[in-house]
Design brief:
Layout lengths: L2 H7 L4 H11 L2 E5 L4 H12 L5 E4 L9 H12 L6 E4 L2 E4 L1 H10 L1 H6 L14
Parallel strand pairs: 1-2
Antiparallel strand pairs: 1-3, 3-4
Helix pairs in contact: 3-5
């Protein structure tokens, strides 16, 4: 099967692709590999031994360009920076928002009822 026909069977728009990732992964992080704030956010989940799914937007995700994904997220969340974090399909925000939630206890509340477990702790698409 060619790459073009494979893509047609996957998400047709960047919005569908992003929404599918958010819906299918209890913890979804849109990240960039070189970003210290992204590393900090992932570190919080790793310290808590919580599995997450991460997409590194600078490493050319398989189906859509990282810039297109980030532009969609900016429209959806009003946040143009990474990391852009979702827990149980709820937009949490960025690294500082996650850190604040961790410190004030609301992160543990959000993590108490995950939709499902991810297959791996950190997966780049």
């Amino acid at each position: 099967m060619s790459a073009i026909s494979q893509k047609s069977q996957e998400s047709k728009t960047v919005g569908e692709y992003v929404e599918k990732l958010i819906q299918e992964n209890p913890i979804m992080i849109f990240s960039k590999s070189y970003c210290p704030y992204c590393k900090k956010a992932k570190g919080i989940f790793e310290t808590l031994n919580v599995k997450y799914k991460a997409i590194e937007l600078d490493n050319n995700p398989d189906q859509f360009d990282g810039k297109d994904i980030q532009n969609y997220l900016k429209i959806k969340t009003k946040q143009g920076t990474v990391p852009n974090i979702f827990i149980n399909s709820e937009h949490i925000g960025g690294s500082d928002d996650l850190s604040d939630a961790n410190e004030n206890g609301t992160l543990k509340e959000k993590l108490a009822n995950p939709k499902k477990n991810s297959e791996s702790q950190s997966t780049d698409i």
